[in-house]
Amino acid sequence: MDSQWKRFWETGLFPSLEFSLSLSFGYFLSLLFYISSRELSLVDTSDSALPILQGILTAGFGFGFVYRKYSQNLPKPLTIVLCVLILTEWVWVFRESASEFLIDYIFSFDLILVGGAVGSFVAGLYSGSLRDYRFLSFALGITLFTFHSLFDPNHGYSLKTILLILFTLLEIYLLSTFLQKSPFSLRFYKIRSKIGRHPLFAPFYRSALSLLLAYCFLHLYFQPGPKIPLILSISFSVFFGRILSLVTSIKRETKAVFLIARILLVVAFFFFIYQSYWNSFYIALCILLGGIIGFFKPNETKQKEYIFVSLEAAGYIGLSLLLYHWNIMLGIRSLLALLFVPILTLPYLRQKNITRLPKVLMFCITSLLAVIFFYPPSIRTSLPFSKNEIYDPIPFQILNLDMKTDHFIFYRSILPFPSNNFLPKKSEIEDKIVILSLKNNQSQIISYIERLSEETHPFLIFVSRNKNNPTHHINALSLLQRLSFWSFDVYYPSYMKLPVDFSSDLPKDWRIKYFHERLENASPEEAQNVLDSIIRFSGGDLRKDALTIKHSYYESYSSYASYYHELGQNKLALDAIALARKFETPKKDLLRIAYNSLKYATPEPDFIPILEDLSLEPEFQEFAWNTLVPMFESLGDWNNALKNMSNLERYYRAKNQIELANELELVKVRLYLNQENWKEAEPLILTRFKENPQSVIWERLKNELIEKKDSSRRVYVRPEMKEARIQ
After folding, report:
1. How large is the C-alpha radius of gyration of the chain?
2. Which of 431, 588, 689, 690 could form a disulfide with 698 if both were Cys (CB 3.0 to 4.6 A apart)?
3. Quick check: is 141 in a domain?
4. pTM of the entire structure?
5. Are residues 156 and 240 in the same domain?
6. Which of 154 and 248 is assigned the larger pLDDT?
7. Are residues 294 and 202 in the same domain?
8. Which residues contact 409 (CB under 8 A, 6 or more apart)?
9. By residue range, what is the domain housing residue 150?
10. Structure confidence by residue, pLDDT tens digits, 394-453
11. Kind and range of the H or E element at 6?
């Protein structure tokens, strides 16, 4: 029984468990990188915290990888300590960590650093042990993940769940190192093939590996975006290339394999050198190079070989970037591209067992390919950066909060104050009230609110009741206290005393209730009508209160205009000015903002009232009339167009700018003629012609006036249609 069980353990169960462990590692590590890249997009990269975390993760993984790669066994004391640390991390992640990584990053960054260092070190230990059997199953796990991602790209898993699974796998790996493996069982970890033993094939592995590493770096540089096709093609080709190297019939065909390897390497070099068509060729390039690496991987590789691989990859990368950024003549660039050839062929040319003719032939072919087909990527594709500002103005000046002080910190708030693009860190919110919004990243904000509530930190959430841009209600708000104001709500935690109320400038007692009933759910247009009606038909205190409230609305929307103008969002600034002018006539500072915004905005009919306000201020009259004239002409409003032309003409004559006034007068006369307005056109043309009898322009206009008047007097009689008679 013992021998049968031992044989079953050594030949069946243990290798199957090792296969499952490596497969799971490949899948969940790929999933971790995929999900973490999405989570890290919400992290503030402007401070030093993220680079420190990335540096510790990289250093921990690299140290673990190198240590395990060149050591036979792990010391038992070190393994026991790592087991305890990984188990402690698992318990902390399960019981204490938030559902969102971003929240732990903000509030528990020190623990994240310690856990990341330990976890990356153990992951490096495991990666350093990936040889042959484990490597194949690990690569298959990556392949399965990439196939899965093609059909389900969303992957609705939390980072917390993935970390728990990975810590469990790391714990299993560490415990497995205590198991004694017999020599028979160890054979499952060593895949030895005739291809791998033959030194003649080692140059193909080295050249393909350096070329693939260089391309992967250049791919990240030139083509940012999803990398699923890249990962899939590499992992899939490496896996099946390694499997193919074990086929017995292929081992016997050494000459044919050597010839095919040379052809595949030259074709892969062609795909690499033709860089302007990487968008079309990169999957074929990755499959060819991955297949060569998997098929020709030597059974034993010396450490210095990987140093040469790193130097060759650096040569490919440096030369590619140099030729991409250096704007030189096409002929010189093609000659410099010849430097790629010795990097590729050097391992092949150094082989003593190969005759001279094949070496010369391969060198000449690759040189021709480099000279003829090299062309760097013409365009570096990248995702355009766009800053989406939240435009949801509310009359916040009706509140008793002085938000211009340093007692507040904002995150994507709907209030017109500088906001953080990332959730504020723990050190930033000390002794401050956090102002939040629910427009973006709601799941992260909910977790953030939960952590703030645990620490009894004050915060406010402003939610607009804008009918055109509603905020979706979430259940987390039901646990908070709510105050309802005019067109917006304020949520706050129960441990805060009443944090906000109506401003002391507003009416009290029954009068505030009177206005509250009419303005609670009113849009800006509805609020304007309500307040204008009260001012028109009421007297005494109600009329005075309505004027005060209108001023609060005006000041609120003016603040939005100033805020968006400072951000360079001219369209939003003008929209805010359009709201503010509904409640009061714009003051000089607001008109200046309108003037500066209109200079960089496309004219729209909605801006006509703002331009008319500008035309009443002497400083902006010329700009306003010059803008209004073509707008009215495009709308077919000829009366207003002529009116603004006359105003502009008088303005030029008053400023002694006679040439501009005369040009505008000609335009006005032309408009009169097109409208057949002889009453206005005739005296003006005749007067100017008498003043300038030698003027060709006024003579032509006079003749045109006579012709059009004569043609308008002619009577055209349409012949009556005769009745058709039925024959």
Report:
1. 39
2. 689
3. yes
4. 0.65
5. no
6. 154
7. yes
8. 420, 424, 428, 429, 432, 433, 434, 435
9. 108-179
10. 898 989 888 777 788 888 888 888 887 778 888 888 888 899 877 666 777 888 888 888
11. helix 2-8
